[in-house]
Amino acid sequence: MMKRMLLIILISIPLFAAQSSKETFTIWGRIVYNGFSPIESFSIKVFELNTFTNQKKIIQDLKIRDNNGEFLIKNLNSGTYLIEITVENYTRYSIIKTVGNKNESVGEIVLQNTW
Question: In its keyword annotation, does this UniProt entry include Signal (predicted)?
Fold first, then answer.
């Protein structure tokens, strides 16, 4: 009985270690408008894309306030994401970004006003 219990514990340790060491990644960028002035308040929706079925599932819905227009989307697994950025009185912006084994940047996104 004791040997069986020890065997189960020894087999389980690598499984738990593999799960706990799963690395997550970040996508970052900056939102600006004419003359590259930062937009300080905006919304970001992040969808996980299934490239086989073309289905999307929302995984984050963020309201951002940042004086420099900068944002971080944290805790992403490797995969493909649709990022939708909305700001009142500006055109909606969408980008598809694939995260491999490193953090990714979408760079500086310039929005056009609609008024």
Answer: yes
DSSP the chain: -HHHHHHHHHHHHHHHHHHHT---EEEEEEEEEGGGEEP-EEEEEEEEEETTTTEEEEEEEEEEE-TT-EEEEEEEPSEEEEEEEE-TTB--EEEEEEE-SS-EEEEEEEPPB--
- pLDDT reported for residue 19: 46
Domain 24-110, classified CATH 2.60.40.10, yes or no = yes
73 and 46 in contact (C-beta within 8 Å)?
yes
Tens-place pLDDT, residues 41-55: 999 999 999 988 889
Instruction: For CA atoms 14, 99, 92, 85, give the dihedral sign.
Output: positive
